[in-house]
Amino acid sequence: SVVAREMARNAPNDEVREDAELMIGQAARCREILQRLTEMPEATDAVHERMSLVQLVHDVIEPHMVHGIRVEAVVNGPAGETAPDVWRRPEIIHAMTSIVENAVDFARGEVIVIARFDARYIVIEARDDGPGFSPEVLAKLGEPYVTTRPGAEGSRTGHIGMGLGFFIAKTLLERTGATVDFRNGRRGGAVVSARWPRPALEAPGYTGA
Q1: Do 109 and 127 touch, CB atoms closer than 8 A?
Q2: Of the listed ranges 36-45, 61-70, 117-126, the one predicted with least confidence
Q3: Could you tell me the CATH number of the domain that includes residue 115?
Q4: What angle do CA 26, 173, 57 make, to 5 degrees?
């Protein structure tokens, strides 16, 4: 942030100044994200520490139900099995919400968040029906300072960035034990998925009163 401000102050032309100002804005966004995560209250009891997998995906999509795009959550698992409870992890909710925000930005009309579980893994996947990732972006996605937006055009949420959102989301998810994958769907659109070994995310059965 300090270096970017110095660059903006001494920019030799408008293009460099705009780049520096964008860096300043993204550094501020990163600071806000980290501040929100550190301010989230610590769980105080076993009931609050856990949530259903269904509740998790609904919490992820809830902020994005107001942009004129159909946003739906689906939970799938083996026939006859109930979806597991999972630990309430603010960093997972934030990261997946950020990924869904990006999907809403580029979707033509629909975003689907799918949670799948089996005996070994829990997977949460966001799919949109937009244009998908371009090859050059797909090769670098998840690194900071990569963007698919030259400006605010086409962004429903008003978000402009250089890839810090994806970088932070990927880092947060990986720190919880997830493997993160970015790809284009076979029928088009972008697909972002996070896969955890089931023991890393599942909350064991609660036996309290």
Answers
A1: no
A2: 36-45
A3: 3.30.565.10
A4: 100
Burial class (CB in 10 A: 0-12, 13-18, 19+), 100: buried
Range of the domain at 6: 1-39
Lookup result for tokens 């259903």: 52
Q: Is residue 207 part of a domain?
A: no
Residue 207 has pLDDT above 50, yes or no: no
Q: Where are the alpha helices (DSSP H) in the chain?
A: 2-9, 14-39, 53-61, 90-106, 135-138, 164-175, 198-201
What pTM did the predictor assign? 0.75
- Please determine, for residue 209, whether its predicted confidence score (pLDDT) is greater than 50: no
Q: List phi, psi (to 5°) of 190.
A: -95, 145
Terminal CA-to-CA distance of the chain, rounded, Å? 50
Q: Which two tokens stand for residue 103?
A: 């999907």
pLDDT in the model for residue 37: 65
Q: Which of 19-23, 51-55, 126-130 has the lowest mean pLDDT?
A: 19-23
Residues with Cβ within 8 Å of residue 16, at least 6 apart in sequence: 7
Count how many Cα atoms sit within 13 Å of the Cα of residue 199 in the half-sphere of its side chain: 0
Task: Answer yes or no: is 29 within a domain.
Answer: yes
Answer yes or no: is pLDDT of 124 > 60: yes
| Average pLDDT of the chain, as a whole number | 83
Residue 209 lies in a domain: no
Structure tokens at 114: 């799918």
